[in-house]
Amino acid sequence: MEGQVAVVTGGAQGIGFAVAQLLVKRGVRVVSWDIDPANDAAMAGLNGKGTAIECNIADLASVQAAYLATCDQVGVPTIVVNSAGIAGPNATVEDYDIDAWHKVIDINLNGTFYVNKTCVPGMKSQGYGRIVNVASIAGKEGNPNASAYSASKAGVIGLTKSLGKELAGLDIAVNCVTPAAARTRIFDQMSQEHIDYMLSKIPRGRFLEVEEAAKMIVWIASPENSFTTGGVFDLSGGRATY
């Protein structure tokens, strides 16, 4: 992976930052697309191999501008990890706020689509690429009182499978991971009742560590993952039923 360029959305913290750290250890130059004010500081701490670019993934024009800046400043990305996302409020479907619904779908699903769409042509030009979309176990099983999040992540799984089949004849692998909850800042958006519910569903009896997620994601994004595409890799601590 030495010398490759990776885009990590949501790289300022959480799973995204853990992925960025591990990619740098593998010799990859990492560009974090994020709107988090901490993005500059996070990338500055990556031994000169991290670059911060402000990007709102829910806005196609912002994604396209970030891509052009990445190519100009660092190089054409051949690794893309879509980690940016939000949880949204906890509420029943009948009480779910419409604006909140649209915001969750715009960031989690539309944002992933925009990033995939924008980065694929460059991978084709290089004859190589690895895309890892971060979905969620909620996208497979559905969490109550989290309909927008569950639906958005189910959409990410479907998008991944579709794009993986489209690019299967090339050395471009498109896969996703479906992690159980990890204790990151996304918990700030959830009620304690919902956090307790998620923990109760994990047979291992604990939350996912971001370093554990990073190890799987970086392998999926490596040349070693040369056959699997359109796949769904579980990080659910035993929760997944299919």
UniProtKB/TrEMBL annotation:
PROSITE patterns: ADH_SHORT. Its EC number is 1.1.1.100. The keyword Zinc does not apply. GO terms for molecular function: 3-oxoacyl-[acyl-carrier-protein] reductase (NADPH) activity. SUPFAM superfamilies: NAD(P)-binding Rossmann-fold domains. GO terms for biological process: fatty acid elongation. The keyword Coiled coil does not apply. It is an enzyme of class 1 (oxidoreductase). CDD domains: SDR_c. Signal peptide: none annotated. Transmembrane segments: none annotated. Keywords: Oxidoreductase. Belongs to the short-chain dehydrogenases/reductases (SDR) family. This is 3-oxoacyl-[acyl-carrier-protein] reductase FabG. The gene is fabG_10.
